[in-house]
Structure formats: structure tokens, C-alpha cells
Amino acid sequence: MTRSLKHVREANYSFRIVLYVIACLPFFSLVNAAAVTKKHAARPPAAPAKSEAHKSRAESDQASGTSAELAKESREAAGEDETAEFKHSPMVKRLAEFTGMSLEHAYWLSVLVNFAIVAGLIFWPAKKYLPAVFRDRTASIQKALEEARKASQEAKRRLSNIEARLSKLDVEIGEMRWSAEQEAANEEMRIKAAAEEDACKIVESAEQEIMAAAKLARRELKAYAADLAVSLAKKQIRVDPNTDQRLMRSFTEQLSANYPDGDRPKAGKG
Q1: Where are the domains of the chain?
Q2: Residue 14: count of CB within 10 angstroms of its CB
Q3: How far apart are CA 239 and CA 247, in angstroms?
Q4: Full-prediction pTM beyond 0.70?
Q5: Phi and psi dihedrals of 42, rounded to 5?
Q6: 62-80: average pLDDT
């Protein structure tokens, strides 16, 4: 990353130099034009005519020169000869003298040379630094594209998961509803079974209590009846001592008759 920044800075510096050179070219051209204008202004005026013939010839030449100047001015006004000052600059003249060309050809040669110099100044730093800058830029763009592709794939994967979950949401809701209904039905059945069991237990307990109460009532009734019978018998039967002895003898004789071998029944408890 530091290397790429260094290349970018060097390329920017080279471009600044090239732009500075390009900006200075019009200034040099203006300097040459000013020199040409100064040279034309420094020319001495023509000597006065020595004779009338010379004067008439000078007048005719002046008229032709005036017409030529008017034509030249018209051409300059029309934009046909905008580069005349540059064509007659000292540098172009020296180039024409050195190469033996005309001013027109020397001018265009100087234009080509200047263009070649400017193009070389632009091409040299561009050839040296721009490939590295372009490579780094291409690598960064490829990296950004790869990251964007991965992010897009991740977003698509999440979207597909969400869509799958949404498509299964109705099924899950139906399963949850069915499970809740089943649990509610099972809970209702458990509650009913528990209530029935509690009712059976209550009925059995009540029946047991009723049976116990009935047994107790029958026992009490029997005891009351026995007591009542005994009391009634006591009131109705009156036994004197003689009758008592007679009953005892009768009872003894009856026992002897029932058990002739001398066996006696064992006395029961109570």
C-alpha cells in the first residue's frame, strides 16, 4: 500500500512538471513574437527619393504595398495567417537556415518537435509510474469486486434461508396449533379422569362410611334389643330358690344325657 502511494505521488509530481512545461510554452511563444515585433519596429525608415522617377516608382510601390497590406490585413482578419509572427520568429529562421528548409516547413517542423518534446515529457513518467498505479488500481478494483461478490452471495444465501423459513412458517404454525390442541385435549382428558377418580374415591369413602354407620347402627340395635329382651324377661320371669334348684338339676341331667361318656364341651370365650 505504501509503495502504491509512493508511485501515485511520483506520477502526480511528473504530471505537474509536464503541465508546467505546457503552461510555459505560450509564454515562450509570446516572447518570440515580441522579439519579432521589436525587430520590425527597429528597422530604419526608407531614404527619400532622389528624383521624380524614383518618387513615382516609390508611389507605385507604396500603392502596391498598401494593397498588399490591405490583403494581408484582410487575411489576418479572416484568420488565414494567425501564425505569421511565429513563422518569422528567430528560432524558426535559425531552424530554416540550419536545415535549408523554407520558413513554412521549418515552422511545421518546430511544431512537430515541440509536440514530440511535450509528448515525450508526458509519456516518460506515464510509462514509468502509470503501469504500477494501474496495477494497484486494478488489484483494488478486483478486490472490491470480489468482496462485493462475496457479500452478494452471502446476502443471497441469507435471503434464501429467510424465504425457506417463511415458506415453512405456515406448516410450523399448523404443527404448533395441532400440538397445542392435542395438549389441550390430553389435559382435558387427564382432568376428567382425575375428577372421575376423585368422584369414585368420594363415593367409595361415602359408601364405606355408610356401611360402617349401618353396622354400628345394627350392632347398637341388636344390643338395645338384647337389653330390652333381657329386661322384659326379668320382668316376666320370677324364679324362687326352689325353681332355681330344679332348673339347675334339669340342666345337669340334660348335659349328662347329651354327653354320656363324660365329655364336656369346652367353655367358649366370652
Answers
A1: 2-38+75-153, 188-253
A2: 18
A3: 10
A4: no
A5: -85, -5
A6: 56
